[in-house]
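Feature request disguised as a bug report, sorry. It would help if multi-protein outputs had a clear separator. Right now it looks like this:
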Amino acid sequence: MTTDLAFIDEPLLKVQSLKKWFPVKDGFAKKYVQAVNGISLTLNRGETLGIVGESGSGKSTLGRCIIRLIEPSSGEVWLGDKNILSLSSHELRKMRRKFQMVFQDPYASLNPRQKIGDIIGESLKIHQLAGSKTEMDMKIADILSMVGIRPEFAKRYPHEMSGGQRQRVGLARALAVSPELIVFDEAVSALDVSIQAQILNLIKDLQDELRLSYIFITHDLSVVRHVATHIGVMYLGELVEMAEAEELFTNPKHPYTRALLSAVPVHDKRHKRERILLGGDIPSPMDPPSGCRFHTRCPLAQPECSRKAPEVRQVSDGHLYTCSVVEHD
């Protein structure tokens, strides 16, 4: 099933019916891990789309497919007027200036044998954005300053820096080529809470200054609330709800979204939600349940949920969810 949960405007990014099925061997039979199954969404310039869900929901695979670090099985990904998935390797290399990724582990994603200046300068060389060594050094210093790192750190190696500083370097590397879209894949989950707040504030400030668009992938709903303009909730390779950030938190509709939100700590007891515990384990994406993929764990499941794919319901402009049981107000 293709679930078209999208907020409509003039998009920078438009994803249509995106699928990624990984082939696996099961004895003599050939099966597929349905990591991403028919996702459609849009992202407007200057906005942040948060993608949330449990581990194994397909969030990271979706992010990597969008920027073609992983080749999708089918679908379309439009950045402006170009379908990224139809580009040749040469065209894609030139296009990569427009979209970058910041990874979860700021140490593993940086070459330990390269100095910080060389890591950032590599992108400038590839895309021929600096004519001379002097110009290169000036640009590296400017980019490091932009992310809150002193220019002299360009001579250091990644292991000589803290986790927060390394993640700033990862962000600097992404910014070096002046992208339009940055995908953050659990980019603050490995950091201490105080450092998380600093990086999140930096990310928001840079977005306002440079009019960047973000896809922010995370399992932490309390984090995504502060950075995202819209939030998409994924379960077992599919989007089950999409809404503006505050709308999703104040008026969640899908039973899975409600269960996730019930686990978020709330300081004001007047707004505390009753904890919703989900039974069972997440089904295997190699053999997903029939009908609604969530019905095996859903506290509201009806017999029809195992037989029929869920309907897409619209609560308001931009707020959609897939459920045949929950009616909107």
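(second protein starts here, but nothing in the output says so)
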Amino acid sequence: MPSHSEVLSLVAGEPVASIRPPAPDQVGLATLLHFEGELRRRTSVNELLYHFANETRQIVGYDQMFILRQSRIGEGFHVVVASSIAVVDRNAPLIQAIEAIISAAGAGTELDHAQDFAATDRSTDPAIAEYPFTAWRWQPLVDRQGIVFAGLLFARQEPMREGEGVRTERIAETLSHAWCALTGGKPVRKIGVLGRFGRRSIAIALIGIALFPVRLTAL
């Protein structure tokens, strides 16, 4: 089985924090409230997500966490943050495999509820076969209209227990609220794709610009 450092190299970048042992089954109310307070004190989305991905181990145990967000263009989900990784390389085989699995699930209605599954049951990608943490839990993040705009992917060696699932739902609600608050209620700002008429209009405009006479001067 690969070491933690080898696992991190599968994703991208250099590890910025050592992997801490999973949190115990019982988490005190004071710990949970303190964690939620820390989330609400983050001043940017990047800071919020990075803090969440690396500090949630004090609430629930996991070997690695990935935070995915709906694509700004078209459909699908993209990994925006991974625990213990400074910068996510979206060209890394593992990242691409994760995005493919989640995006495929998003084509149906599988992402609108929390679920546990084995990664190897969803993909035959070699990157998934080599990844040691194949017990995954998907926890959706919903906006104020109840629409799934992102999600948490917990990767572990063993599936989550019932008590841990309750905690993931609680902290996911807190993260969703903080994320929406920092973005004015629009956590994903979609970029429209031009239709046939729009592309034709741009083409005509470019042709018109190309035909516009321009005087040339020489020294």
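Even a blank line would do. Unrelated, but nice: The beta strands are 64-70, 77-82, 115-118, 135-142, 148-156.
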